[in-house]
Structures are given as structure tokens and as C-alpha cells.
Amino acid sequence: MSTPASDALVLFGATGDLAYRKIYPALQALIRRGSLEVPVIGISRSGWTLERLRQRASASLQEHGAGSDAAAARLLALLRYVDGDYRDAVTHQRLRAALGDARRPLYYLAVPPSLFSPVVNGIGESGSGDGARVVVEKPFGRDLASAQALNQTLHRRFTESSDFRNDHYLGKEAVQNLLYFRFANAFLEPVWNRNYVSSIQITMAEEIGIQGRGRFYEEVGALRDVVQNHMLQVLAHLVMEPPVGADSEALRDEKVKVFRGIRPLAGEDLVCGQYEGYRAEDGVAADSQVETFVALRLHLDTWRWAGVPILIRAGKRLATTATEVLVRLQCPPQQVFGKAAAANYFRFRLGPDRVAIAIGASTKHAGTGMDGESVELYVCNARGAEMSAYERLIGDALKGDPSLFAREDGVEAAWRIVDPVLNLPLAIHPYHPGSWGPQKAEALAEPYGGWHCPLEA
Fold first, then answer.
1. φ, ψ of residue 435 in degrees (nearest 5)
2. How far apart are CA 234 and CA 143, in angstroms?
3. CA dihedral in degrees (100, 104, 108, 114; nearest 10)?
4. For 30, which of 20, 45, 257, 344 is 20 to 30 Å away at the CA?
5. 404 in Cβ contact with 393 (< 8 Å)
């Protein structure tokens, strides 16, 4: 049974960086598709006016959106503004008045995690939470205990069905296509298991550094920033069992099973690195031990995947910018032609500039000899205008569709995987900007054919 759509959108953190770069362009796109016609109430403690917020939104659309068009004009007309401290009851009373007749608002919390609880409590105490939904941005906690505490705070004011924990990776077309490719193609199922797959790798590489976010990164690090959420979600799409139905809960049930099947991470399965020059960044401690690179080996104890090594690495200031998955298959049991052929594989390029699905195979060179070469059978899903992740996710939240959002038990199960190593005194290995991370990380992948390095976009 469908749920009623939200009748207002309230954006906490309306003057912030996330709203500027991602949210206002997504709202413009939703209007262009005819999917947004409700008031958009910005709320911040910046001392701004509605006119200044409209100027900020307009600048956002010029830089990151579709510029000045009819949808931009419509968004500016839908904007409202409430200024005040999120912890002040008066602010929430003003918000309640600004909502007017709206009874099913969607609250979007584009604010630091430390403000989640004050905002949620303020909404509840003002009587504005009944019938509402709330979107919470990652990071959802900084460890298992804090994630559990945040879940308890949400549940005091909202039901689980009204909680939308946002991981924008789940809204990416390429990540959704990975899931679709798995379950829409019958040829994949016979080989998608420990009998044929020799290893799984996921690499998320970024050429950029921390881009002035030193104070934020000092509190987070690579493991919390992208592995516990983005990379584990991608892994779940790769290895989950087929959902028993098409509803959102069936899909999320299978993801939770994956997370529960992964052994808690041990120190010997983790390598941390820090790029040279990181400690000179603004907001970074001179003796910082925060990792800007992480490589890890996971073990998934399920019937399908037992014994298959899962390797994940992510980092800043690496050789290129790309997110790529490589699923290597076992080599043929006999080398009929004398010379060993390369192992077959499936490669999924998830962006940012290229999206691809490719199958690695071997084919014969022309001539009298039985010599071969490696080729790729290439599938590209680059047709038509791609919907941005934030457009998709905000649209789904407005409709009440939780399919692409993390559920309480899934978030906590993911934290259980990394929680044991978060406070270990691990060595931080330096690496050169523009490399593939510290040399120490090579040893993790060496027994399985080494790391696969994505080509430049």
C-alpha cells in the first residue's frame, strides 16, 4: 500500500556546503521532472534573510545545477526561511508556524552529526514530528555505540518507517545497475559463488586530498568516511542473495544478512596510510595519526562465499579518481595450449566519469600459433540523462520509499564489522601523493594476484 507523499520539505543546514553543492541542484531537477511542488523551508542559524537564502540557492544552481530556468524560478518561489538556533525551542515554534497547514513534512538534516539529537528532539517537543519523515546524512555515528544511541534518539520521536538514513552511494545509477545486472541475468548465477570466484576487490581512489576539510577529516578518517558505509553497501550488492520479493524490506533484509555474515575486522587484516603533506593541511594536527588510506581483507562466512577473499581499499591523493569492482574467477583447471591464460573476470566501473560493466576473456591471436590475448566484452550503461544520486534519494524520501536508505539493523551490523579496530594503536604508513598507497598494503593482495588498479578515466 502506498504511503502519502510529504507536503513540505524542511532543510536544516540550508546555508551549508552540502545544500549548496548537492541539494539545491537536486531540488531544481525534481521540479523539472514535475516531482516537487511543496514548500521548501530552509532553516539555519546564520542570521540570514529569505532574500539572502534565495541568492545563495541561485548561486548554487548557476555553479552546480542547470542555471537560470523555469525550474530555478519555481524553486526560489517555493523557498521559505527560518533563522535561529537549532537547540532553541523558539526556533522550532517559528518552524511550526512556517509549516502552516502541512502535516506530513520531510525533515532533511544536512547538519553535523553532533546536531542530530538536538534537532530531532526540538522537532518532537514542538509537536512537528507527527506524520513526518526525517532524512539523516552520514556519518551515522562514529562507532557502534554512538550509532545505537542515535537510533534510540530517532525512535523516541519517529518510527523506523519514518527514518531515512542517507548514504548517497545507494542513489548512484551505477550502484543500482550493479544490483540489477546481478539478478536480471541468468548466466551469472551458476558462477557467482566460491566454486568459480577466486577473489573480490573494491577500490575507491581519489586524486584529490581533503580539500580544506581538515577539521572534519581529523574526526573521521578513511575507514569511517567511506568504508563502513559506501564500500560495504557496494559489497552487499555484489554478494547478497536474491531478495524474496520486490518490496524494500526484502532487499534490505538480504543486505543485513551480508553484514552479519562478515567477520569483525582484525588488526592483521588492515593497513592504514597517510599521504605525505596531510599534516600540513589546515585543521590537521602536526602529529596526526588519522588515516587517509585504508586497505582491508574481509571474510564472509556464508555458504556461497566462504573462503573467498574480499579486498577493499580507499584513499585520498591516489593515482587516479575511480571507483571500481573486480570479481576474479578461477583459472581453467588445465592449460590446454601450454601458456597460462589470464583469469576471467567481471569489472564494474562505478564512476565518477565513466560507468561500465566489462567481462574479461581470452581470445586467440591470428596466425598459426595457439597464442592468445586478453580482451574485454564491454557493456556500457551511459544512455540518456542520468538522475543524480541526491535527486533520486530526495524524491524517494518525499514519496516515502525507503528502498535506497539504510535500516537501523543494517547500520548497526555494518558498524560491528569495523568497530573492533577503531581504537587500536595501528601503524600509519606514509605514502607519496599520486601513488597507490603505502607499500605495506601490497602484501594484503599479493596472495590473490595483487591489487587491480583502475585505469585513468
1. -95, -170
2. 20
3. 90
4. 45
5. yes
